[in-house]
Write a structure and sequence with these properties.
The protein has 205 residues and is an alpha+beta fold. It is built from four helices and six strands, in the order βββαββαβαα. Strands 1, 2, 3, 4, 5 and 6 form a six-stranded mixed beta sheet that branches. Helix 1 crosses helix 4 and helix 2 runs antiparallel to helix 4. The protein is elongated.
Amino acid sequence: MQGTFVKADIRLLVAVTCIASLPMAAHAEWQAVETTKTYAITGTSGRELYDSIGERGPLLGPKVRAIAHTDFKLTWTRKYELQPDGACKITVNIPKLTITYTLPKPSAKLPVSTRKSWQKFIAGVEAHERVHGGFIKDMVKEIEAMSVGFSVPDDPKCSKIRVELTKRLGEISNRERQRNSDFDRVEFSDGGNLQQLVLKLVKEE
């Protein structure tokens, strides 16, 4: 029986790359590493802070800036094993997930009234981003559940299984993107949570 370990880097599904064979258990507990970084904004009023977010927030496109952003890096260590019947089977599939939250941070000391409004605002924004982080973790769990034990018949070189796996990973990734999009649509809709957070910050409520 042959076994091959590979490490796949998935940030919107980057191609699979082979690495050397390593002995490890077929199942292992894992935890996501979650980190937070900030970008500086200027201003001492709610309006000024929000305007600065519009100028300095993370870019999501050529012209679109966000209040905050959740990004991730996901790598997998997989073992493909040739079975006696000629099938290829994934016997090890261990994820390594790092989630990074990017949030705004005032560079100046804020007046008391503004500081209270800001604290409510940033707490709500971070909670929103951590929902996105939860969606990412759910996606990884779905990939893990689907792929451990996954096999393709008549695949002595373990090449067909990679093609089929990439297809299924794409489907799971697309569902995760749609879930994020649907969540943001509700949060930013009229009366939605994020819209209310912005209005209260600007009004310093």
